[in-house]
Amino acid sequence: MRPRKTILIVGVLVIWVLMTYLAFMRSVRVTDGTRPRPAFSNKLMLEQVQHFEQNLKSFSENRQNLYRDIINILRREDKVPSVPAQAIPDVPSQESPVRANEEEGNTKERNPEVDDQANGVLGVPVPLAPIPEAEDGRPEVERILSKFQQRYLNNDPAFPVIPVVVFACNRISVNKCLDDLIRYRPSPDQFPIIVSQDCDDEATRNTILSYRDEVTLIQQPDQSDIPVPPKEKKYKGYYKIARHYGWALRAVFGQGFDSVILVEDDLSVAPDFFEYFLGTYPILKRDKSLWCVSAWNDNGKDGLIDNTAHDLLYRSDFFPGLGWMMTKDLWDELEPKWPKAFWDDWIRQPEQRKERACIRPELPRTRTFGKIGVSNGLFFDKHLKYIKLSEEFVSFTKNNLSYLVKSAYDDTFLKAVYQSPVVTLDELKRGMVMTRDPIRIAYHTKDQYKRATKNLGLMDDFKSGVPRTAYRGIVSFFYNGQRVYLAPSANWKGYDLTWS
Ligand SMILES: *[C@@H]1O[C@H](CO)[C@@H](O)[C@H](O)[C@H]1NC(C)=O
Fold this sequence. Notes:
alpha/beta; single chain; 17 helices; 2,3-Dihydroxybiphenyl 1,2-Dioxygenase, domain 1
């Protein structure tokens, strides 16, 4: 066996040297060409640099291939453990099994577990690149996340590192979400994408792993069954979601990040998604009456929004979720009492909200494409699929967003609402409104509110007494190209928890 192995290694080395030599000769021939006139020299120089870069790239690819071939050979011969670990540096541990699989010429089916078994049969220890830290007893997730050392780019608090935590389970279509995030993120250093996977679904995990070092995968390790009261059996999914969120947020905030953006695996994001969160970040930090920034508008459908109001933002007492940013301070507050299920309804309760508001946009910066999920498909067909994703890029970091700070906002927004003329629902519906300026529809009871929203195509539900998108009971929307405020009386005293 020994001589064969040596011959193979030597053979591979010879091939590599030959390829390197040929590539080198090619580049020499190019440089030997006739001297160009000065006018063209820059262009030619550029081309040569590019050519050289390509060569370099192919050299390094060759080298990688060489490493792989050697590993393969060593692996086929038995009794050679852990050498491969040193052979490939710079490869994140999670990807190693995937790579190993490719070496078998099996690029289509990326399946770490099958590969692990195969390795076992071949007598080589499973982890291709054992990480020394794995032995210090730290949880896997901590080890994975410990590579994120920076909290601010260049230690500048104006440039916080804000991880995007993508919550995945068993939707392979998570790739749509990841493609968007990767396409639009301005800087991988400032916005590391951490995909947290529950459910242990292999196909989904392989999809996530195929993004290599563009995303970081962490996996919720506790897949044990959750005891659920018999009456809530059908809601078991919500228990799992709450467990997953709690685990992932604990892990990510455990790294000391100042804030994170939470994204579900079925969300598409708008081109200025990151810019939106960067621009609103200082306001979220500064105004303690805010507790989140959300990219979502519950009424963000064509016809109900002003398509030209690209940069219009609101305060909302209703927690929208669906692509949102929270700070570590908030997490520290919620963590000790994180619920077992229905975390989003829980977070909307007065005990958690404490009269704080979220910022939300007029034009949605997220849209959900998932029909199958824990919440029902009917709701998607009836409503969610009409949510319109903003397409224009707004430079929120350059805009003055001070108007969103509570003192300023309560002044101007409430003035705008209560100075607008009142019209009836009938007048609005029949097109009998004489002005194009903003108008107001008044409501005083829950039934009046429900009647108006149903008639106008708005979301009509409440959570902990708060209507969707409402700020101080006011719901702002567009109707027939006109701004309309559905508003309680000016001396509004607070939300009524019995409204549901
Ligand atoms: C930003 O807007 C606020 C009003 O909302 C104003 O008072 C402030 O002067 C503005 N700041 C700048 C730098 O323009």
